[in-house]
Design goal:
With 185 residues, this protein is α+β, with helices and mostly antiparallel strands. The chain is built from 6 helices and 6 strands; from the N terminus they run ααααβαβββββα. It comes from Kocuria subflava.
């Protein structure tokens, strides 16, 4: 195996969750021709090699694929497979999924702008038994999303993200915006 870059920042978390060391994951993907494979195929390859005991194997397979792409220099942290950038912030909040989602919707109302950028579409809401979603599209083409999902008996995870950012300089700005918004819940 020929190393490309520094060990990915998520390598320790991946190893702990999957029981497979980063060097072994790199070897699995290298052996499959990983440098030439698209993201989807990398994730499918990682999923096929995932130990059966791993909870949320699909999510961890995606994490392995992203870490590998960073390791080989195909993308930098925060960069999506399409070349855009994204960032998220999370907070665990007491209450039911519906209660916290309603609180969020009341808190933000019908925003005309978000951190100085005009809202060009939304807010849009949708949901399933496992997740409630709120989203807006902004004038720069980026999208703000808030997802609320159960986390235990009487807690929920609120995940706010900004996706489709055109450059990495916007990542920390939006991380700060979303962390500040989540404090109000």
């Amino acid at each position: 195996m020929s190393g490309r870059g520094a060990t990915p920042g998520r390598a320790a978390a991946i190893a702990q969750a999957t029981g497979v060391a980063w060097d072994e994951w790199a070897e699995v993907l290298d052996s499959a021709g990983g440098v030439d494979l698209p993201h989807k195929t990398l994730a499918e390859t990682a999923y096929a090699a995932m130990p059966l005991s791993v909870e949320n194997a699909g999510w961890w397979a995606q994490s392995v694929a992203v870490a590998y792409e960073q390791w080989i220099g195909r993308r930098v942290p925060g960069q999506a497979h399409d070349g855009t950038f994204q960032v998220s912030a999370t907070r665990t909040v007491p209450g039911s999924m519906e209660e916290v989602f309603d609180r969020w919707c009341r808190l933000v109302g019908e925003p005309a702008e978000l951190d100085g950028l005009a809202v060009t579409d939304g807010p849009r809401t949708s949901g399933t038994d496992k997740r409630l979603h709120w989203g807006v599209t902004l004038a720069d083409g980026s999208r703000g999303n808030v997802d609320v999902s159960p986390k235990g008996a009487d807690k929920v995870l609120v995940a706010a993200s900004q996706v489709n950012l055109s450059n990495p300089d916007e990542v920390e700005r939006w991380r700060s915006v979303w962390k500040q918004q989540l404090k109000h819940l």
